């Protein structure tokens, strides 16, 4: 039966401050709200729902220490859009971890990406990347 799974439908980010996270993902990132309740907010990102949920259920475990990323989310864009995303995030005063650059040469055999890394208000690591052609002579 598990082999019948064909896609990832939604991702849930467990949040300390749901309102602050909603502002970031809806206002800063521009993701449209699909559904919202008091403790659950779904936003459409392509074919996946990015869901924010309060950390209010006993089985989710204790909160993470400050500055600890719980996840890394990667958002794909066209190659010419990476720099524009970077400029927009800077203008919105988002914490940039690494400005746009071509991924480390050691992994070119697996990935050919130009990446930008930044953080959300609760320290989760976010990436905007594009598939690229490698530079001449690479």
Which features characterize this protein?
single chain; 138 residues; alpha/beta; 2,3-Dihydroxybiphenyl 1,2-Dioxygenase, domain 1; four-stranded mixed β-sheet; 2 helices; 15% helix
Mean pLDDT across residues: 88
Low-confidence stretches: none
Distance linking N and C termini? 44 Å
Largest sheet: 4 strands, mixed
Number of helices: 2
Helix content: 10-25%
Assigned CATH class of the largest domain: Alpha Beta
Structurally, the number of domains stands at 2
Main sheet: which strands, in order across?
1-4-3-2
- The CATH architecture assignment of the largest domain turns out to be Roll
- The total count of strands amounts to 8
- What structural class is derived from the secondary structure elements? alpha/beta
- Residues in β-strands, percent: 35-45%
């Amino acid at each position: 039966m598990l082999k019948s799974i064909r896609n990832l439908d939604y991702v849930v980010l467990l949040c300390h401050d749901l309102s602050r996270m909603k502002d970031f993902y809806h206002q800063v990132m521009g993701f449209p709200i699909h559904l919202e309740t008091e403790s659950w907010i779904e936003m459409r990102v392509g074919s996946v729902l990015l869901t924010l949920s309060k950390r209010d259920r006993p089985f989710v475990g204790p909160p993470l220490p400050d500055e600890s990323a719980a996840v890394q989310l990667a958002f794909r864009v066209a190659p010419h859009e990476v720099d524009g995303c970077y400029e927009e995030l800077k203008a919105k005063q988002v914490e940039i971890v690494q400005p746009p650059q071509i991924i480390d040469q050691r992994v070119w055999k697996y990935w050919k990406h130009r990446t930008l890394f930044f953080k959300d208000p609760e320290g989760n690591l976010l990436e905007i990347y594009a598939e690229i052609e490698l530079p001449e002579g690479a």
